[in-house]
C-alpha cells in the first residue's frame, strides 16, 4: 500500500471516528429533549383549547397585503420583537455575543455555538462547540458528481442558481429520503432529518467556495481543515483564510443572519416544503430560491449599489448637507432609501448595531463606512420629516455590503450566497423539530377576489 493511500485511509478513519464521537454530543441531547418538548407542545394546545384562546380574526387587508402580521406559524429557534429585535431561543444578539463560545482569541460567537443554541435552547460548552466544528469539517466533502455539476455551470449562471442546483443534487444521498422509502416509523423521522441537516450545513461552505472560485477566481479549490472552525474553513475556501479580521466578520455575519423567526420568505419556504416531507436538501434548495429574490436576500446588494452611486456623485468626503440632499433626491425620485425600514421592527435593527460596532472597531478610516455612518445619522430624520416610513431606522442590510467590500470582497452577486450559508442554521433547526413534534402538512385556506366580493356583499 502506498504512503498516500495509507494516509487517506487513516484520514477517512479519523473522520468517521470524529463523526461518531461528536454526533452524540448534539444528537443525544436532542433525543433527550424530544419527550419534554412534545409534552410542552401538547400542554400549550390543551391550554389553548381550555381557554378558547386565539389570535383574532384575519382581515381582508392582510390577505391582500401578503399575509402581513397574520399570526399563524410555530417557529422554535427565534422570535422577532418589534422593539427589541431578534431573540435566539430567548437570547438577544448582545446576549449571544457575551455568552456563546468563541474561537481562541476571537470576539464573535462561533456559528456552531448558535446552531447548538437554536436546536436545543441551551448555551453549549466550548467542548461541545469544538466537537461540532470537527463534525461539520468531517462531513464537508461533496460527491464527485456535484463537483462536476458545479464545474460545468457557465460563469454567467448566477451564483445563487448554481448554489440551489448543487443543494438540490445533495438529495441523491438523503438519509431521510432513503429511510422514508423503506417505511421508517414516523416517530423516527427526526433522526434522519437531523443527519441530513448536519450534512447540508457542513457541505455548504464547500459548495459556496467552489462556485466562488469558478466564477470569480482561478478555479483553485482549497481543502477543508479538520481542525478549523466553520467560518475559518468558509473563509479559506473563498480565499480569505489568512485574514483573521475577515474570518471574524464571517463568524459575526453567519451568526446574525442565521434566523429571523419563521415568517420571512426563506424560512417560511423551507418550512412549507419540509411540511410535505421533502428532505432537508430539497426543502432548503426551495428556501434558497426564495432568498434569491430582490425583496429578500438581494437587499444588501441594492444598499451597497445605492451607497457607491451616491459616493460617485457627491464624493467620498461629502458634507452632511450633500448627503441629506442626495437622500431627498432619492425620495423625490419615487424611490425608497434601501436598508431603512423593516416589516416588523420599529427601532434600529440589533443586527445592524452589531455590524456597526464591528466597523467602529476595525474599519476606522474606511471611506465607505464614513458614508454609512453619515447616512445612519441623517436618514432617519429625513424619513420622519417626509412621513415615508413607520420605521425610519436601519436594518441589517444597510451595513453588511460595506463590511465585505472593506476586505476586498466586492463580488456583489455572491453576497446572497453567504446569506444562504447562514440561513441554513435556522431553517434546519426548525425542520428537525418539525419532524420531532410531528408537525403536519401546511395547507392554509384561500379565496378568490370574486368569492370575497360575494361574502362582503351579503
What is the element layout, followed by pairings?
Blueprint: H1 3-51, H2 60-64, E1 78-81, E2 85-88, H3 93-99, H4 111-120, H5 126-139, H6 144-151, H7 159-169, H8 175-181, H9 189-216, H10 230-238, H11 244-256, H12 265-275, H13 280-291, H14 299-314, H15 320-332, H16 350-362, H17 367-386, H18 397-406, H19 415-436, H20 449-457
Antiparallel strand pairs: 1-2
What does this structure look like?
There is one protein chain. The chain is mostly helical and 458 residues long. Among the domains are: 132-296 and 411-437, Citrate Synthase, domain 1, CATH 1.10.580; 303-407, Orthogonal Bundle (Cytochrome p450-Terp, domain 2), CATH 1.10.230.10. Helices cover 63% and strands 2% of the residues. The protein has helices spanning 3-51, 60-64, 93-99, 111-120, 126-139, 144-151, 159-169, 175-181, 189-216, 230-238, 244-256, 265-275, 280-291, 299-314, 320-332, 350-362, 367-386, 397-406, 415-436, 449-457, and strands at residues 78-81, 85-88. Strands 1-2 form a two-stranded antiparallel sheet. The termini are far apart.
Amino acid at each position: 500500500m502506498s504512503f498516500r493511500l495509507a494516509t487517506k485511509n487513516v484520514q477517512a478513519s479519523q473522520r468517521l471516528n470524529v463523526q461518531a464521537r461528536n454526533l452524540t454530543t448534539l444528537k443525544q441531547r436532542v433525543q433527550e429533549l424530544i419527550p419534554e418538548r412534545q409534552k410542552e407542545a401538547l400542554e400549550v394546545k390543551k391550554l389553548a383549547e381550555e381557554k378558547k384562546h386565539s389570535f383574532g380574526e384575519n382581515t381582508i387587508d392582510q390577505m391582500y397585503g401578503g399575509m402581513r402580521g397574520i399570526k399563524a406559524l410555530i417557529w422554535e429557534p427565534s422570535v422577532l420583537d418589534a422593539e427589541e429585535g431578534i431573540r435566539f431561543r430567548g437570547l438577544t444578539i448582545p446576549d449571544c455575543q457575551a455568552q456563546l463560545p468563541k474561537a481562541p482569541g476571537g470576539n464573535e460567537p462561533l456559528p456552531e455555538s448558535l446552531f447548538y443554541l437554536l436546536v436545543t435552547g441551551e448555551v453549549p460548552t466550548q467542548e461541545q462547540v469544538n466537537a461540532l466544528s470537527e463534525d461539520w469539517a468531517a462531513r464537508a466533502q461533496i460527491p464527485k458528481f456535484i463537483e462536476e455539476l458545479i464545474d460545468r455551470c457557465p460563469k454567467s449562471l448566477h451564483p445563487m442558481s448554481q448554489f440551489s442546483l448543487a443543494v438540490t443534487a445533495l438529495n441523491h444521498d438523503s438519509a431521510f429520503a432513503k429511510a422514508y422509502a423503506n417505511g421508517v416509523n414516523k416517530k423516527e423521522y427526526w433522526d434522519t432529518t437531523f443527519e441530513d441537516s448536519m450534512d447540508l450545513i457542513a457541505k455548504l461552505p464547500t459548495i459556496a467556495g467552489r462556485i466562488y472560485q469558478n466564477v470569480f477566481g482561478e478555479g483553485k479549490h482549497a481543502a477543508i481543515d479538520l481542525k478549523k472552525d466553520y467560518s475559518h474553513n468558509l473563509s479559506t475556501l473563498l480565499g480569505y483564510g489568512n485574514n483573521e479580521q475577515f474570518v471574524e466578520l464571517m463568524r459575526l455575519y453567519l451568526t446574525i443572519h442565521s434566523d429571523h423567526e419563521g415568517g420571512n420568505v426563506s424560512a417560511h419556504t423551507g418550512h412549507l416544503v419540509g411540511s410535505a416531507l421533502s428532505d432537508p436538501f430539497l426543502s432548503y434548495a426551495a428556501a434558497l430560491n426564495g432568498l434569491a429574490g430582490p425583496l429578500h436576500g438581494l437587499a444588501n446588494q441594492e444598499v451597497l449599489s445605492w451607497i457607491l452611486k451616491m459616493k460617485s456623485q457627491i464624493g467620498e468626503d461629502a458634507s452632511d448637507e450633500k448627503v441629506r440632499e442626495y437622500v431627498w433626491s432619492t425620495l423625490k425620485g419615487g424611490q425608497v432609501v434601501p436598508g431603512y425600514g423593516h416589516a416588523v421592527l420599529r427601532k434600529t435593527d440589533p443586527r445592524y448595531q452589531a455590524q456597526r460596532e464591528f466597523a467602529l472597531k476595525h474599519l476606522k478610516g474606511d471611506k465607505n463606512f464614513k458614508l454609512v455612518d453619515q447616512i445612519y445619522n441623517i436618514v432617519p430624520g429625513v424619513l420622519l420629516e417626509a412621513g415615508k416610513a413607520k420605521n425610519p431606522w436601519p436594518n441589517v442590510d444597510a451595513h453588511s455590503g460595506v463590511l465585505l467590500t472593506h476586505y476586498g470582497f466586492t463580488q456583489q452577486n455572491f453576497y446572497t450566497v453567504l446569506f444562504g450559508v447562514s440561513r441554513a442554521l435556522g431553517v434546519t433547526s426548525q425542520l428537525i423539530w418539525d419532524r420531532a413534534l410531528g408537525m403536519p402538512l401546511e395547507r392554509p385556506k384561500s379565496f378568490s377576489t370574486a368569492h370575497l366580493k360575494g361574502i362582503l356583499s351579503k
